[in-house]
Design a protein that fits this description.
Layout lengths: L3 H10 L10 H7 L3 H12 L7 E11 L2 E13 L2 E6 L30 E6 L5 E4 L6 E4 L6 E5 L3 H15 L15 H5 L10 E4 L5 E4 L2 H14 L11 E12 L8 E11 L2 E7 L19 E8 L3 E6 L8 E5 L7 H10 L2
Helix pairs in contact: 1-3
Main location: cytoplasm
Pfam families: PH_NISCH_C (PF25625), PH_PLEKHM2 (PF23142)
GO molecular function, one term: kinesin binding
Amino acid sequence: YPSELLMQKITEDNQIPVHIHVSVSLQYVAGLKGRALVEFFHSNIAEVENEELRHLMWSSVLFYKTPSVEVMACVLLSTKAIYFLLDDSFIHADEHQSDFWNKENSDCENSSFHLSCCFVLKLNDLQSVNVGLFDQYFRITGHSADHIVTCLTRDSYNTHTFIQQLMAVLSLLARTPSPEPVDKDFYSEFGSKSTGKMENYELIHSSRVKFIYPNEEEIGDLAFLVAEKMDGLTNLPSLNILLYVLAFQVNHLEGSAQNTSSLQPKTLILTSSDLFLFDEDYISYPLPEFAKEPPKSDKYQLADGRRIRDLDRVLMGYQTYPQALTFVFDDVQNQDLMQNLTLDHFGD
């Protein structure tokens, strides 16, 4: 340790997405390569001398205590813990975080010293991992509200790779074995008798950490919700969700100095007849065991919805990743105007 293969892998993974702006301190981390990156981890981040860095990933993260603030983080997985190296601007993003983040180095703010805060979740405190629809994100849950983090990878490959690495590291933990399970019948094993609904798929790892995957009912619930938003324009059996993807909506800020654009996180859902943008709560659902009341907002809130038949053209950007798409819709007040004119003109 560290092997040549590991150093090559973390060097390749140490790239900030081009559309995200981060502080100078995180840009410094992204500039490190190979052995320098491993040495940086051991001298600045690692809490135990004999722990090994196993995986590195850049991802947007959300914390349960601050669900409205999405921040870029360098996620480092070691044999002892998961470290989230955060942009220092995150501390000032929300005034309610003063209890959550204890900021002591306020005298450094005006100097040339760039500060990053690091959130640590020890593997021994890990209880469950919820994988989102189509592996677009995953939520890591510890033993309290302070220990719930969602990684919005927006990429099924990154999610899959991290989960694989996490399972491998958890296998190294020495935990007392679980007691022998009591024999259960089929219904108590796979369903909840109180609701009659099938539970989500659960994989209980040898370390006793639960890995929870969505089942088909989540897609069914989402299709029902989408149909509700369409005011009954279509019948539910024929409604198919063709695409579910976490994306950004680009809002151009024309009044700013450089005519910049802000990125608003949105969930894009494409059906056979409509295109929807939803504001989705990625952190509060499913409810943690200690939650005393449901969240203030629903999991999905409709932000915009258009009919595919009103789509005029799609403009594609020429950059590689992330791909920019502009959907141009016909802005006609009476959407069925053409159809009515045709009927009037040609009669029966």
